[in-house]
Design brief:
ANL_N_sf; membrane; Rossmann fold; single chain; Long-chain acyl-CoA synthetase; alpha/beta; Luciferase, domain 3; ATP-dep_AMP-bd_enzyme; transmembrane helix; 8-stranded mixed sheet; 6-stranded antiparallel sheet; about 550 residues; GMP Synthetase, Chain A, domain 3
Length: about 550
């Protein structure tokens, strides 16, 4: 049986997309080494106009690796990165990997409690962090050395000079980018003082662990997904094959997705480097900043989430900004409304297609063909070298017929190695034969196009970020006066919003707004419920478990 018979969906692939992608032998470090060799003088990074060539990037990585080695980082050690998108993030990522160590990405918007939970779990002794959040990391978990990154040091010289002006607006802009980090080592000083790591220093192998990426998986309890160099390189190669119209060494990718998220990490940190693209970095998404950058360095490829496309297209029309340089755009993390596709393609003249993935698959497994065969409203067909099954979630040996809803199982080189120090959780999702349970209920038609119907897991996706109900509920229960709580996601025009139903202790009381304010002590802003609804009781199963789905239905019906 050839690949087309085994994978009928390959007939819908764009011309030139292969059914199989050769499994990579090298590590992620080899991606950068090869890019520096092939595209040395080309701009690799652009940060507000300050540029770094591939040759310079490779040199900075070698020096940063030596600096980290002097701090005691070696093969297998975990190194925490708590950084927004910036050149130092890219350098630190590859420097950690060069030593055979393991990157652990963290959201710099997390609270001290959220960071402490993950830092304790993975046991990193060294953390490279944005100086503004250094106090939240110092002394947490096993961290003994905090290296602070000043974002302003990566700005163009003129912008750095302008930030020194004694003006209120300038002081506010500077305070938004940097802050003193007492007791932390300065990243720029450590790297400047280090010579390059000797080229003969042993590097990682393809099968070595490259990354721990925290996710709620199918249970909602955050845990570290273990991803190898081979997993991540394979997914980058699959992504490259999916868009045959890309030109190595000639593309410009906008990093509006956070690099600490699995989606942004693969599409920007590995995929972009692998094709020798110029990566334009944005510490946070700001439509005006993105549109301003298009005049300096027009983008050609934009991975993002639906709200970003809608806001950019609308703002571009209002401002008269030309976005026709963007030939390809890939959307993920939440459902892509057809109206957003129409608006984007009218404004840019390029293609916007939807894909599907999860942290445990590095993350992409399905995508709509970048061709007329695409089907808006679906998440597309399996990637090259990827197999899928749709099964009865109560009997995983029983396959569903085309069009019949069932749980999506995935198999391919991008499937992770398991959860960090959680063999029981790993055994629940990694099945014999290499199949991964996704926890999502889908349908697949005879041509292999998949439509997501519902989630077995009750993950909330808001603004492209994952929010786990159990985390929100734990924070709510810590608030005096809150006796019980249930957090759910309710649909909005842009995806979902977090809404909580709470039962209050009559003797203590509390108001919805006070509860939301208290949540901010324990939760990142995007996890804080947009609405808190006080109820007399919460629906439960026969064994007393709160039924989130029933809570969601009740809140939706109440408006």
């Amino acid at each position: 049986m050839d690949a087309t018979d085994r994978r009928p969906w390959t007939r819908s692939y764009a011309p030139g997309v292969p059914a199989e992608v050769p499994e990579p032998d090298g590590s992620l470090v080899d991606l950068l080494t090869d890019a520096a060799r092939r595209f040395g003088p080309r701009v690799a990074l652009d940060f507000y106009g300050a540029t770094t060539t591939f040759t310079e990037l490779a040199d900075q990585v070698a020096r940063a690796a030596e600096a980290l080695r002097r701090l005691g980082v070696g093969p297998g050690d975990r190194v925490a990165l708590v950084l927004p998108n910036c050149p130092q993030h890219v350098v630190a990522f590859y420097a950690v990997l060069r030593l055979g160590a393991v990157v652990v990405e963290h959201n710099p918007l997390y609270t001290a409690d959220e960071l402490d939970r993950q830092l304790t779990d993975h046991g990193a002794r060294v953390a490279v962090v944005w100086d503004k959040v250094a106090p939240l990391v110092a002394g947490r978990g096993s961290v003994r050395t905090v290296v602070a990154v000043d974002l302003t040091s990566a700005l163009p010289r003129l912008k750095r000079w302008a930030l020194r002006l004694p003006l209120p607006k300038v002081r506010a802009a500077r305070a938004a980018m940097t802050a003193p980090a007492p007791g932390a080592a300065a990243w720029s000083e450590l790297v400047a003082a280090a010579g390059p790591l000797p080229s003969a220093h042993p590097g990682p192998e393809a099968g070595d662990v490259a990354l721990l990426q925290y996710t709620g998986g199918t249970t909602g309890v955050p845990k570290g997904a273990v991803l190898t160099h081979r997993n991540l390189r394979a997914n980058a190669a699959q992504g490259r094959a999916w868009v045959p119209g890309l030109r190595d060494g000639a593309e410009t990718v906008y990093a509006v997705l956070p690099l600490f998220h699995a989606y942004g990490l693969t599409l920007c940190l590995t995929f972009a480097v692998g094709i020798g693209a110029t990566l334009v970095l944005f510490p946070r998404f700001d439509a005006d900043q993105v549109l301003d950058a298009t005049r300096r360095r027009p983008p050609t490829f934009l991975p993002a989430v639906p709200p970003v496309y809608a806001r950019l297209a609308t703002a571009a029309r209002e401002r008269g900004v030309d976005l026709t340089s963007i030939r390809y755009a890939i959307s993920g993390a939440m459902a892509l409304p057809p109206a957003t596709v129409d608006l984007w393609e009218q404004v840019t003249g390029g293609l916007l297609v939807e894909g599907y993935g999860m942290t445990e698959t590095s993350p992409i497994t399905l995508g709509n063909p970048v061709a007329p065969t695409r089907r808006p409203g679906t998440v597309g067909v399996p990637f090259p070298s990827t197999d899928v099954r749709i099964v009865d979630p109560e009997d995983l040996d029983r396959d569903r017929a085309p069009g019949e809803a069932g749980e999506l199982l995935v198999r391919g080189p991008q499937v992770f190695a398991g959860y960090w120090n959680r063999p029981e959780e790993t055994a629940k999702v990694l099945l014999p034969g290499g199949w991964l349970r996704t926890g999502d209920i889908v349908t697949m038609d005879a041509d292999g196009f998949v439509t997501v119907v519902d989630r077995i897991k009750e993950l909330i996706i808001t603004g492209g970020f994952n929010v786990y109900p159990s985390e929100v509920e734990e924070a709510l229960r810590r608030i005096p006066g809150v006796r019980e709580a249930a957090a759910v996601g309710l649909p909005t025009d842009d995806g979902e919003e977090v809404v909580a139903a709470v039962v209050l202790d009559a003797a203590v009381g509390g108001t919805p707004e006070a509860i939301r304010t208290a949540c901010r002590t324990h939760l990142a802003g995007y996890k804080v419920p947009r609405r808190v609804v006080v109820v007399e009781d919460l629906p439960r199963s026969q064994i007393g478990k709160i039924l989130r789905r029933a809570v969601r239905d009740q809140l939706r019906s109440d408006g």
